[in-house]
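Ticket #4471: structure export looks truncated?
Reporter: QA, pipeline team
Priority: medium

Steps to reproduce: submit the single chain below to the structure queue and open the exported record.
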Amino acid sequence: MTKTISLLGSTGSIGRQTLDVCREHGVAVGALTARGSIDRLEQQAREFQPRLVAVYELEPALELKRRLSDLDIEVAYGLDGLRRAASLPESDTVVTAVVGMAGLWPTMAAIEAGKRIALANKETLVCAGELVMEAARKYGAEIIPVDSEHSAIFQCLQGCRDRRAEPAGGEVKRLLLTCSGGPFFGLSRYEMAAKTRADALRHPNWTMGEKITVDCATLMNKGLELIEAMRLFRMPPERVEVVIHRQSIIHSMVEFCDGAILAQMGTPDMRLPIRYALTYPHRVMSPLPPLDLLHCPPLTFAPPDLEAFPCLKMAMECARAGGTSCAVLNGANEAAVSLFLREEIPFGRIPQLVARALDAVPSQPARTLEDVLDADRLARECVQG
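Actual output as written to the record:
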């Protein structure tokens, strides 16, 4: 079980819930990082007394350093500060809850330090999955997924001797990613086009950060998760499928070569997969109320509507294409969602801008991180230009 963590992205939704788990089970905190939100970061630092706190930008870091001057806590800033937090010697586990491509470099630093990584930053594997997984093998880093769907698959695969996809000779036939369908399930593309920021942020089942909640409304989040699953579990894209499951009770499933399907079920609470990532390979008692099968709603399943949700379709196409196309997809989406959250574009413009970037930025082999970062930059420039 984890003894001490470095928590990257401590003030966001996943970060705050990770600290809930730390309180419940007495896990120490060696480092905290955040992009901003220094009021909340100060409160967390005073409660958990980490050795290091890192803030992405200089001015908030200087303000936080002034506020914490009465404590023996080092305050760092910038990319170097994030890397130091990710490779802190006393932290045996690094929880990467940073949103977007900003999580790539500190995650790589944690990998190079040979840490266990509780991964909640899907963009790292979406954009640079082959490079990240190769580095993890090289440095002996262990990656445990925190996303509820990938945690579910990870749990279902425990005890599986051969995880290669059929017909390559292994036991696993398919990975089945469940999807709530988001707040706009059942609507046509035309009906969604003018939906507002407030509409998109009303997720039916989960409480999450703004960016991921908008991604759930476009179903881009499920597309990114499909690519992440492909990388994390070394599955070809045709063996990873998306199934609409409105109730979010079954978090994902694995179908085996003999026809058996294993599913992981539970209440829709992110503290469940966070706790498992911190305690794996053990399980510990949870204070959360258990799933009540006698009172939960009927479980339903449906295929996704790729015409109404083109972001998912584009993600599937990028998964098959490989190379830097996934980085272009992610970078364009991040830029478009940012414009939408600032209410500069309507909801229906998000997939249009992503499609424009995919047409404009040619896909190339992703041989280095620089290849990935260049594709990401060009995609953002295409959306913002």
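Status: closed, not a bug. The export was complete when the record was re-opened. Leaving a note from the reviewer for reference: The chain has 16 helices and eleven strands.
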